[in-house]
């Protein structure tokens, strides 16, 4: 037989109000005007169920149980739960980590021109697949193809929903059921456990590895070419580097081999730089234009990394091969949507003017921001925090930012960071900032929380300052208590 409920807990259970009784209280009626009714109802049921579980568990003293079911406590709990339920899961955060292309935070923030284009496309109807000149159906690719060709020197271009899809479509179109040659040193994992070999075999290609992990020569490719070979694939190792006793085949040599043997060559550049990163004091990444000039037949890259636009996969190259990819039935399954297309077109238009792009595309502006400029903002923030929280321990010190997004793994960008120390330890402060409103993402190093303003928009300075002050005051109050 189940254990009987103690009389004192039975009395407490009788104190728990019904859903209708809580809905009738003034505070909950007010909540219904601020939050969706469904969120309030779910919150009430959740809170009442938790109260019953707490009372029945027998872990609480009668006094604690009565406090749990007190009307004021229930109303506060319901209000907090309703706000949490109604709040979007996909939320804006302040990225003060110093990682410019933070994969988990959405990679490249978009330029104002891209945001305006996306809003215009979203608010009403558009010329997505309609030709105003002829009055007939058009292609969504016309909005970006000429721009991509101008930026890369390619004959034709094609945009899909991400770079993995671009590689998949290329392999499926050109080598379905046949061999794809690739160096062992380029069998990379591109993130979230997705690996280039899996993408290739999933697309129908038969993987043929050449060379060794650290050294691959042109002769390795030459010896591997056979009657079943359909494609030579080169993958740029954008998210790691091989150092020491290494060798790899130059892109131009691989393209020349393909032409001698009548085989198409495709290069996956990954991060998709369209501007020379040495302009920002960073190592030069290979450009799509470089690969096209070297004779590569198809080049693929991402839109939301070093290009600085929305998520997209881009294919540029020979017109006949791009046409084959576009006619593949799978192209519809991976096609780019109108909002990403609008943002991509606007970003590519900015890239036609490199100086304007460096100023207006946020990712490029962040990469080029001088350390002294970051430090000046950090000093101003430190001074504001000392005024707002007199017992704060903070200093501005040298640090490094990261490119992120699987690009330039060994490159670091000199920066100046705001270093915060607290008696509670950095872990609690980091958690309080992450769970605050707005959420703030920082780095923890040894005994310090580091705030890197390189990745914080100037428009976010005020909410960041308030979020930091709130978190620091909460820590001070807890230490005093």
Written account of the structure:
The protein folds into 3 domains: 7-86, no CATH class; 94-102 and 366-480, Alpha-Beta Complex (Aspartate Aminotransferase, domain 1); 110-360, Type I PLP-dependent aspartate aminotransferase-like (Major domain) (Aspartate Aminotransferase, domain 2, 3-Layer(aba) Sandwich), CATH 3.40.640.10. Helix content is 46%, strand content 17%. It has helices spanning 7-15, 19-23, 26-34, 37-57, 62-68, 71-86, 112-123, 142-152, 163-175, 196-202, 218-224, 251-261, 288-294, 319-327, 330-333, 338-351, 354-360, 362-367, 371-388, 426-434, 461-480; strands at residues 94-95, 99-101, 130-131, 136-137, 156-160, 179-183, 189-191, 194-195, 206-210, 229-235, 265-268, 298-302, 313-317, 393-404, 412-421, 440-441, 443-445, 448-451. It has a 7-stranded mixed β-sheet with strand order 5-13-12-11-10-6-9, sandwiched between helices. It has a 5-stranded mixed β-sheet with strand order 2-14-15-18-17. Strands 1-16 form a two-stranded parallel sheet. Helix 9 packs across helix 10. The protein is globular, with a radius of gyration of 28 Å. 41% of the residues are buried.
Features:
Aspartate Aminotransferase, domain 1, five-stranded mixed sheet, 3 domains, Aspartate Aminotransferase, domain 2, alpha/beta, seven-stranded mixed sheet, 18 strands, single chain, 481 residues
Short description:
The chain has 481 residues and is an alpha/beta fold.
Please give the share of residues in helix.
Answer: 40-55%
Estimate the mean pLDDT confidence.
Answer: 91
- CATH superfamily label of the largest domain: Type I PLP-dependent aspartate aminotransferase-like (Major domain)
**Net shape:** globular
Count of folded domains: 3
Rg measurement, Å: 28 Å
Number of helices: 21
CATH class of the largest domain: Alpha Beta
The poorly predicted ranges are: none
């Amino acid at each position: 037989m189940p254990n009987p409920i103690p009389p004192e807990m039975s009395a407490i259970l009788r104190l728990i109000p019904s859903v209708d009784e809580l809905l009738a209280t003034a505070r909950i009626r007010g909540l219904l005007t601020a939050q969706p009714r469904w969120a309030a109802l779910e919150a009430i049921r959740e809170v009442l169920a938790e109260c019953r579980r707490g009372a029945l568990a027998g872990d609480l003293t009668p006094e604690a149980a009565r406090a749990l079911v007190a009307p004021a406590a229930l109303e506060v709990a319901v209000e907090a739960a309703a706000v949490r339920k109604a709040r979007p899961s996909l939320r804006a955060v302040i990225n003060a980590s110093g990682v410019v292309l933070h994969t988990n935070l959405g990679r490249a923030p978009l330029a104002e021109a891209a945001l305006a284009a996306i809003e215009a496309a979203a608010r009403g109807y558009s010329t997505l697949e309609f030709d105003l000149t002829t009055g007939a159906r058009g292609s969504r690719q016309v909005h970006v193809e000429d721009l991509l060709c101008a930026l890369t020197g390619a004959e034709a271009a094609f945009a899909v929903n991400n770079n993995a899809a671009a590689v998949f479509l290329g392999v499926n179109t050109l080598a379905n059921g046949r061999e794809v040659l690739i160096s062992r040193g380029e069998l990379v994992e591109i993130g979230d456990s997705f690996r280039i070999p899996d993408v290739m075999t999933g697309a129908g290609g038969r993987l043929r590895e050449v060379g060794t992990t650290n050294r691959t020569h042109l002769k390795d490719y030459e010896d591997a070419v056979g009657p079943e070979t359909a494609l030579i694939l080169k993958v740029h190792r954008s998210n790691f580097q091989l150092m020491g006793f290494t060798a790899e085949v130059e892109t131009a040599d691989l393209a020349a081999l393909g032409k001698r043997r009548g085989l198409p060559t495709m290069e996956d550049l990954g991060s998709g730089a369209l501007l020379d990163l040495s302009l920002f004091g960073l190592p030069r990444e290979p450009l799509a234009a470089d690969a096209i000039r070297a004779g590569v037949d198809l080049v693929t890259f991402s839109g939301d990394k070093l290009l600085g636009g929305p998520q997209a996969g881009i294919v540029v190259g020979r017109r006949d091969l791009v046409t084959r990819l576009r006619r593949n039935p799978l192209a519809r399954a991976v096609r780019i949507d109108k909002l990403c297309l609008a943002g991509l077109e606007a970003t590519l238009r900015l890239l036609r003017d490199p100086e304007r792009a460096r100023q207006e595309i946020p990712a490029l502006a962040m990469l080029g921001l001088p350390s002294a400029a970051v430090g000046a903002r950090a000093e101003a923030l430190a001074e504001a925090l000392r005024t707002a929280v007199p017992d704060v321990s903070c200093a501005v010190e040298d640090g490094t930012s990261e490119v992120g997004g699987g690009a330039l793994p060994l490159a670091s960008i000199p920066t100046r960071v705001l270093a915060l120390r607290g008696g509670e330890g950095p872990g609690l402060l980091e958690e309080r900032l992450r769970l605050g409103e707005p959420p703030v993402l920082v780095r923890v190093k040894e005994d310090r929380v580091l705030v890197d303003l390189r990745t914080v928009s100037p428009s976010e300075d005020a909410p960041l300052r308030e979020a930091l002050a709130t978190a620091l005051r909460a820590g001070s109050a807890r230490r005093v208590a």
